[in-house]
């Protein structure tokens, strides 16, 4: 179904299902040897969502290798490695921010991210998680049911990131005068180009000097053939359909001409460094992607204000 300005979802539908997909990849990565991440909550969260295809992947009943091949340039095995590297990158970002003395953190579009429950946060840290209400409610309730305890002062902010989330965040206790560590992982592709700019403006306005931001930047599609890109995305999903899961990811993302996150942040008072997906794969001891398109073209930006 096509996106609308005020669409909503749970973790089994639309954009919400992408959070379950990423958590399934984290469950696979947690079982891998050697493992570059450890997310013990990924598998039970995916199980609880109840999409059998992702639950089978999370349990190891269906392997990534069984989904490789077909017309997709990046198969499931490499996607899972990419998600493992990405998770580790953001884990390391928070560890470095804590080391630098930052005690306020925000996870934008938290999905099934369990960092509040699995990372070691310094005493006194407050962590805010923002996502759509049904997503927040499901994760919080499911983890409580599993007996998981947050390892930080965790405050959820259930609101759409297209709404006035800065007001909701501030109402939850966020202090704009304190330096903050922000992450935006797996988010920008689901925002239209102008929505990405607005979000970066809002983050900048709420960021005291010394704040840090780590974000996954998706490539601009200005010169690319959008139909071809959507067809390529559909090719990945074809293999999934053979295993009983039918979703049109290409209808969930916004393509078109969008700002380069690194340049945008530099123009708005941030100093930046950027890495590619392949840089991260190499950094964490995994094989590089052959493709130079799609997932390989995303960037991982670290910025400081
Ligand atoms: C690919 S998932 C990534 C989730 C999480 N960051 C991770 O990496 O596991 C995309 C997430 O973005 C959230 N999201 C996308 N657009 C949003 C919006 N407009 N408002 C709130 N959340 C949004 C979805 O609900 C979903 O949880």
Automatic annotation (TrEMBL):
It comes from the Bacteria. One of its GO terms (molecular function) is methyltransferase activity. The keyword S-adenosyl-L-methionine applies. It is an enzyme of class 2 (transferase). Residues 211-231 are annotated as: Disordered. One of its GO terms (biological process) is methylation. InterPro entries: Ppm1/Ppm2/Tcmp, SAM-dependent_MTases_sf, SAM_mthyl_Trfase_ML2640-like. Keywords: Methyltransferase, S-adenosyl-L-methionine, Transferase. Pfam families: LCM. Its EC number is 2.1.1.-. Belongs to the UPF0677 family. PANTHER family: S-ADENOSYL-L-METHIONINE-DEPENDENT METHYLTRANSFERASE YKTD-RELATED, S-ADENOSYL-L-METHIONINE-DEPENDENT METHYLTRANSFERASES SUPERFAMILY PROTEIN. NCBIfam families: mthyl_TIGR00027. Exhibits S-adenosyl-L-methionine-dependent methyltransferase activity. This is S-adenosyl-L-methionine-dependent methyltransferase. It comes from Mycolicibacterium chitae (Mycobacterium chitae).
